[in-house]
Amino acid sequence: MHTDRRIALWLAACLALGTAHAQPPVHVLERQEVAFDLSGTRKLQLSVVQLEGSGWTKERAIGAVREAAAILSQCDIALTRADWLRLAVPARYIDFFTPLSRELARLQPVDRPALYLVRETRNHPAFEAEAIGRGNSRSRPELADTVWMIAAVRDPGIALAHELAHVLMNSGEHSDEPGNLMREDTAPGQTRLSAAQCSRMRQMAEGNRLFLP
């Protein structure tokens, strides 16, 4: 009798353990497609991944995307829609940290380019926002064509436009030109892009198939 009870308890424990392992480490809490009324010959869609507990709100996230879309429209690029999703994740994924962020990108694949809204960064040097294009993702391919922004980022719409431009141009280059979006430090009023920057953005993004068909 005691042996049968021990076996039953062992089987129950195995079943509970199997159920725990079967639970996805991340899951989608909410998802919505947001359309933007912009025109341009190159159409772009952005995946927006907002991590629960990061300090971001949907309103702030979509507001930043809307402002970035307006800035990029000067290059005849129309960010026409955003696929916004709010993810529940284990605490280890809430901050941007390359080894763990690679895991997160594998666990919940999304279309690229993609924006990840995180709480903080554990990378060094620590940036408020970071772009990862094709050229700087060879050692971390899961993060290619993504932007990561922390909750405390200043001027999130301008910062997002700046980082998306890095991704679309597949370049980490900055500009010294006054008022240019690609100055090293983003700031209000610095939103202009040169004809050469726009041309590179369109050419490289098209070659990397980041525009909609």
In words, what does this structure look like?
There is one protein chain. A six-stranded mixed sheet has the order 1-3-2-4-6-5, with helices on one face. Residues 7-22 have low confidence and may be disordered. It is 34% helix and 21% strand. The radius of gyration is 20 Å and the shape is globular. The chain has helices at residues 2-22, 58-72, 98-107, 156-169, 195-207, and strands at 27-35, 42-51, 77-88, 114-118, 129-132, 146-150. With 213 residues, the protein is α/β, with parallel strands linked by helices.
Task: Briefly summarize what is shown.
With 213 residues, the chain is an alpha/beta fold. The chain is 34% helix and 21% strand.
Number of helices: 5
From the alpha-carbon coordinates, what is the Rg to the nearest angstrom?
Answer: 20 Å
Q: Mean pLDDT, as a whole number?
A: 91
- Ranges with pLDDT <50 over ≥5 residues? 7-22
- Tell how many strands the DSSP assignment holds: 6
Secondary structural class: alpha/beta
Shape: globular
What is the string of SSEs from the N terminus onward? HEEHEHEEEHH
Strand proportion, as a percent range, falls in 15-25%
Biggest β-sheet: strands ordered side by side in the sheet:
1-3-2-4-6-5
Percent of residues in helical segments? Answer: 25-40%
Largest sheet: 6 strands, mixed
The CA-CA distance between the termini, in Å, is 68 Å
List strands and helices in order, with pairings.
Layout: H1 2-22, E1 27-35, E2 42-51, H2 58-72, E3 77-88, H3 98-107, E4 114-118, E5 129-132, E6 146-150, H4 156-169, H5 195-207
Helix pairs in contact: 2-4, 4-5
